[in-house]
Structure formats: structure tokens, C-alpha cells
Design goal:
The complex is a heterotrimer. By secondary structure, chain B is an all-alpha fold. Chain B has a single domain (42-297), classed as MetI-like (MetI-like fold, Orthogonal Bundle). Chain B has ten helices and no strands. In chain B, helix 3 crosses helix 6 and helix 5 (113-136) packs across helix 6 (149-173). Helix content of chain C is 35%, strand content 25%. The chains are: A mainly alpha, B mainly alpha, C alpha/beta. At the A-B interface, helix 2, helix 3, helix 5, helix 6 and helix 7 of A face helix 1, helix 3, helix 4, helix 5 and helix 6 of B.
Amino acid sequence: MTEQVLDAGDGRAPAVNSRRRTTLRPRRAKSKLASSFQTPLWHRVAERTIAVLALTAIAAIALIFVFIAREAVPMFWEVEFAEEVELRDLFLAKEWKGYDEPVFIWQPVGEPAKFNVVPLFVGSLKVTFLAMLMSVPLGIGCAMFIALYAPRAVREIVKPAIELLAGIPSVVLGFFALMVLASWAQAAFGFHFRLNAVVAAIGLALTIVPVIFTIAEDAIQSVPQTLTEAALALGARKYQVALRVVLPAALPGIAAGVVLGFGRAIGETMIVLMASGNAAIMEVFDFTTSVRTVTATIAAELGEVAQGDPHWRVLFLLGVMLFGVTFVLNIVGDLAIRRLQKKLTAES
Amino acid sequence: MRHTKKDWLLAGLTGLSLAVILLLLAVLLGQIIWHGAPVISAEFLTEKPGADMISGGIWPAIYGTVFMTLLMTLAGVPVGIATAIFLNEYASPRSRIAKVVRLAVNNLAGVPSIVFGLFGLGFFIIFVGGSIDSLLYDDPTPVWGKPSILWASLTLAVLTLPVVIVTTEEALRTVPRELRDASLALGATRFQTVYKIVLPNAKGGILTGVILAVSRGAGEVAPIIFCGAANFLPYLPTDLRDMFMHLGYHVYALATQSPNVDAAQPTLFGTVLVLLVLTFSLNLLAVIIRARSRAALRP
Amino acid sequence: MSKSEPSVAQAPNGVKMETRNVNISYGSNQAIRDVDLDIADRSVTALIGPSGCGKSTYLRALNRMNDTIDSCRFEGHILLDGEDIYGRGVDPVEVRRRVGMVFQKSNPFPKSIFDNVAFGLRIGGEKDKDVIAERVEESLKGAALWDEVKDRLQTSALGLSGGQQQRLCIARCLAVWPEVILMDEPASALDPIATAKIEELIRELREQYTIVIVTHSMQQAARVSDSTAFFYMGELIEHGKTDMMFTRPAKKRTEEYISGRFG
């Protein structure tokens, strides 16, 4: 069968390197390994370009920090800023004229303007906490149901449905919370304010549930089958296996999902901007009052402020702080996921 | 296996949470379709809005959204794909540079969208645009250093970058190592292996990821509030330095700043429906491509 | 175990590749220790040994495929026609053009049969369609696959049977005109009939190519190879003519392995 190949050659000379089987064979250069074939220039150009473009993400994260901070930090030396705002009033309570006790207050259009960021962070945390209160059990519940109980058919409908939910733009969720949920919630619970922390939190929960669900489901699915079988073989009931074996093993993954979901919630803008009512009231425990978050404050106020104004600087400071908070949350979530992977690979 | 009461309780509770989510999703979609569909007409889709923003159509917003999305894709997707190729095909996973890039990508994915808006304003508009202006023009009226569709698109390109990178990397990882080995053993260079073997085989997955990222970017509003979106613009953007109308921003502006929200309600639902159809059809396209590319890998 | 002396078991055609003081490690784990081995031109050299003995690692060092593994460290010299393939300024791509490889699991590209075989030519810069067509036919004939596929060259290679896929991979390797062909257990995933075809092919290819084959089957080594090298725990224990090795091994461990006491 190989005859033709053999015949095609001009016979093999005994010398090692002169086997030329057909005339097509290129003659090898004297130094054979120093490349007779030239890599086209554009390959090398393309490879360099790829390597350079890969640095964009690093550049982006650095530029984001630098250029937001650049708009905020002049507050530490600018005279115009010092004339209008005292730095410690940004964080500490103050007894303003007309008040009989020190208060935390955000009132940028007041006279004098009051820029205390504490009520905004309280607002953000309040809405986020409420949203987590709803979405953590819902997200984990969904993930457990899908991973442990749901028949295949249900799973194949639910997963795309949750993907669909994750794909809904947040402005649409905000709109839904504002137009539909707010009225229904007011009718059902008799809220004094139509737009409040609870309504915004429901809207937020809709964006966070897919985040928690996806990561938790992954974590639960990646718990080794052998672990489950071992528990079942010991006579454990299914719910015992779920709660005592699967859930603990998946816990770092679920925790990562919760952390990332928290980061998502605290940074979410459109939903809270549209559905929270946006009153900067320093009220920690009443969830039915309207609330103003850090993100919504930036979104709503920056458009009205002149560049370089003290108010402008404070809004960018809020941005820097927000960036810092989510940066830390991300690293924590990342570490949790990595620890889970390590744990599982060590076990299997 | 026999199920005890506690088994049923756990299944019931977890099932209930799923039901709640699905119910909310159904109500959301139902409401939007129910109130939005009657508004949709040829006129609504092709006309400019009236001066009150309520009458007339939303054509400039549709046009602006699509235009911005295209610009964003052109600017961000090649960079994202290149980064993924670098991470998956060139850099060794334990090299410092790969670790730092990955850390940056993960963190970029978690940066709140409003912070991207501040970044677009502080970097693109004030720094880049402002520098161009001061170099080219003596006139203090800003030409580049002001909100525009260009800066909004670039800001969103940075925002979608991590999504493109992560999904492209996933697609590259599905190409079996054996194919790379075969190509290298035949004397292909690494670049030839990527270009002729890895990319053609990961094509479907990459396209899916890109479309998902693009659909996410198309619906983002917070970053463009200060970077180029206009409340009301009776003309279509023709220049990269023009501002533009955007479906999502239109919804936000109309729902929160309109003097008469009740009167605006039909227009609002209609606009939301159009935005949803736009993003969902992109998602659907992604799902179809994914299914087809999976089928193509089989003999 | 004492360091093995460089040995040429049988070299009527001279030595094609020389291995000197080769050490290979993955991280802290040393896979190959001080191996000296000469590979005779236009003959079949079989590498045998229990699994994990380093024979595949050694094979992959011969065309620098180990370069693609991140943690892999190489020390020593491997000469191809007297030139060090790990020398400075040597392009591993050029090494692989001259030292081809067939893998344990057949790995055709998800392309047509024709495009699979033509791949190496095209990436080597060959543009002439006639040349490519001629070489594809020649290579498929060389791999004893032409008659089975000549009517469906444009169909997907993934539609071939396992044995045909592996012969396609051999054809693909032949198309770039390598001088040495490395085979990593090329028949381990195949049924006996397909295996027999591959073995027959190897015996034919020996006329023109230097072949190094890793195999876990002693019978296969005996059937196809001219000389055999026995690896154990990362060291080369013994190297000699195949018929001598299997009848009168010089070392005790070789004898134990061959007579089936371990491995």
C-alpha cells in the first residue's frame, strides 16, 4: 500500500540527510534547526498586540481608581472647599444651627450645605440588608431545589428562566418596582410612603437571586457524589444528607455567592434610584420609610453640579468609597471561591 | 426511598422559593407585555417623540441604543477576546502577569455601574476629551470634552470587558488540549495553533459570550447618565460627539422626572417592552448559536 | 541503579538522535534521571516500562512537546543529526517539523479528512494547491488509508473509525515529511484488528523514518521494534536489540519486568 511513496523517491542514499523522496522536498538549509521557515511578521505583530491588549483590564481598574480619586482629593487642600465644608462634618455628627442636638445630615442644597455621608451609607446598607434577607434564602432555596429535588424537565425550564431574569436590565426592574410593586405593596401592607426601603429591596432581590442561585447551584453540584452516597449508605435521610452533608460542603461556595451578591446589591443604582423614594433620612430601623443610597445620590445629583464644586468633590468621594467597598468584597468573595475549589480538589 | 415529613418539608420550602421567583418573573413579564403591547405600533417605533416626550414615538431612543451598542461592541469585544486568548493560550496560569490580569478582571466585574459613570466622566470626558480640546482649540467651548455617544460607548465597553473575557475564556477552555498538541506537534507555531485550531473550534462559544455581554451593556443606564444620554433629542446622532437618546435612560427620565407620570404610563410600558425585546432577542440569539455550535462539534 | 552507558544497539544506518544526561522534572518530582540513549536511524526503537516510569515524558522531550507543559524542567542535551535541539536559538517549531508525533488518543481536527492532512503543509507556508493535493494523497497512501477514504476526502475526519482516525493522524504527521516519528502508545485505544494494521504500518514506515514508540505491550514491542529501551522509575535500565532483550536481558529488573513479575 505504501509502494507508491517508496517508488516516488529516488532511492535512499546511505547518507543520513539526503533522503529526497520526491522532487517536492525542500532542500534543508545547512543549519537545520535555525529555522528554514520564517514566521510571518504579522503573526509576531498580532502576538505582541494580544499581550498588550491583555493589560487593558489592569489599566482600566487603575484608571478607574485614579480618575475618580482625582476629582475627589482636591478637597483636602482647596480653599473653596474648606470655605464651604469642614472635612470632619463629612463623617461626624454636628449640631447645626436650628438643631438642638448633633445630627448626621445630607442636605447639599441647604444653607449651609450639609454633606454628611453617614445617612447615605446607612441607606445603602439598609436596602442591601433587606434585599439580602430576601434573596439569600430564596437563592439558596432555589439552588437546593434544583440540585437536589427537581426533575430534569423542571431543571431545563428553570435554569434558562433564571438566566432570563439575570438578563433583565436593572432599569426595567426599577421601573417594575416603581410602577407595579410599589402600589401593590402599599395596598397590601399600608405603607405610609409608597416608595420605601422594602419596595427597593424587592427590586434589588430580583437582581441578586440569580447571582446567588448560580454560584450556590454550582457549589452544590460540585459536592462529590461519593459524599452523598456515603451518607445515604449510613442510613441518613435525604433531608439529613442535604442539610448536614451537602450544604456544609458547599458552604464556602454559597458564602462566596452571598458576598458577591452583597457587592452587587450595594453597587446597584437604577433600582434604588427609581424605587426607594430617595429621601436622605437618618433612620436605621424603620424599613418602611423612604431611603436614599450612595449610588442613587451620585446618579441623581451629579448632573446638577458644576465641575469642581465642593458638592462635586463629595460625590466623587462617595464613588471612591463605593469602589473601595466593592473591591474588598470582591477579593473576599474570590478567596472564598478559591478555597472551595482547593477543598474540593483535595477531597476528590 | 421512603420520604419522611421532614423530607417533604425541605422539598416544599425550597420549591416554594423557586415558585416565588418564577411568579415574580411571570408577573413582571406579564405586566410589561400586557400594558406595553397595545402601545406598540409602526408609528411608535418609527416616529420622533413629541415635545412633551409622551406623544409620538421612540425612534431616536431605539436608534441611539443600537448605535451605542455597536460602538461599544467594536471598542470592547476585540480587547476582551485578545485578553482571553492571552490568559488561556499564552500566559502560564501561574505567572504573575496572568494572576494580576485575572485579579483585575474579577474586580472590574464587581465595580458598580455608577462608578463606571464617574470614571467615564472623570477620565474620558474631562481628561481625554478635555486634553484633546485644549490641544486643538483655543475656543473654551468644549468639542470633545463633553458628554457624547462616543464616550458613553467607550465607558460601557470597559464595563462589558470582564464579561467578554470570562465567557471567551470559557469557550477557549472547551477546545481539547489534544487538538493543540496535534497542531504543535505538526510544527505549527503557537499563533498558528490559536488562529487555525483554537479559535475556529471556539467560535460558537465566543460568539455566544460576546452577545451576552453586549446585551448586558445595551441595557445599562447608570454609566451613561453623565456620559452622553440625553433626556430629549429631536434629531438622530450623526457625529460621534453628539449626545443620544437611549431606551433605558428614556424609561428612567420619563418615570421619575415627567410632570405627569400617569399620562406617561403607556409610553413607558411600550418603551420598556421594546428594551426587553431588544435584550431578550440578543439573549435568544446567543442561546441558538450556543446550541448550534455544540451540535457542530459532534461528527 | 548505575548510570547507563550510551549504547547503540544496532545502527547499520548510523545514529539519528543522541540523548545525553537528560533530566526532566515536574516541579519537585523528577520524572527522568540521567538518561543517555542513542536512537538509530531508520529503525524502530520501543520504549517499555511500567506505567509512570517516565517513558512518555522522555518521548515528549524528543520533539520538545514538554515545552508546552508549564511546570516541566529539562536539563541535558538531545542531538538530532548532531545538533542540540535544546540549544540556544533553536526554534522548537522547527524541531517539531522534523520530529513528528502521534498521540495515544487519536486527535484529528474537527475538519475534513483532506484538511487534516493538509494542515501541516498549509501552516508551513505551502500555497500551491496541486502540491498540497499530491502530498495529501501520498501521505494517506503512506499511512495505508487512501483506499478507504479517497472517495470522501471532504467529509469530517470525526466520522472515521478509531483505527482510521489514528492512521489519519499518522498520515497528517507524514505529510510534513518528518525525519523522526514519535508514537505514544498509538494503538492502546484500538481493537486488535486496527492494532494489527497500525503495527504493519509501523514496520513499513521503518524503511524511511526513524520511529520511537512507547508501548505498554511487550508483544507489540517484540513485533515492531528493532531495539528496545527499558525504563524503570525514571531511569534507563537497559537498551539493546529487541530479540536480545526479550530472550537474554542483561539486567535482573528487565528480566523481571519482561517475565511479568511487575508492571
